[in-house]
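Recall the central idea of this unit: under ordinary conditions, the amino acid sequence of a chain determines the structure it adopts. In this exercise we apply that idea directly, starting from the sequence alone.
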Amino acid sequence: MLLDRNQFWLRLKTSFSVELPNTPSLSTPFTFPDDLGGTHTLAAKINDTEVAKTSVYILANAFPLDVTKGPAGTKTTLHLKGVGWTETEQIYHVVVDNTFAGYACAFQSSGDLTIFLTMSGAPGWHYIDMYPGIYQGTETRPANYKMPQLTALDDHPGERLPIFRWAFFIGN
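Accordingly, the structure predicted from this sequence is:
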């Protein structure tokens, strides 16, 4: 393992090996893991000599709600995969009906966020949003590190991250 410039341990992993043809090119199918988001380096080596390198960016994605309607008190699940690991990629804030409900961090879960949510409110449609946030900082007024970044599509620092939206119907 190596230590990168941000003081994170880099994990080197051999994903696959191939027999090289007698041509100057190589092509092989490869399924990239969909867990930890952010930038990942792909390198080709012959023995221990690196001969090619590129990077791939995994962007967070959301699954549909497992339950989309029911009476107040019904439980549903928010599930994201591919959430990143940097201070500007690793947390998502939950907003229900324009009210902050909390946040979750993907740093210790390899980019996989699962949030169990009990729906409440009057009968009708209720809206659930997840906004990226910034993990930490020293600013206290406003406390940008403790709230969803509603304008993330315009001005989130670093990466351009998606906002996720669902709808849940309370009723029969």
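Residues 17 and 47 are 11 Å apart (CA to CA).
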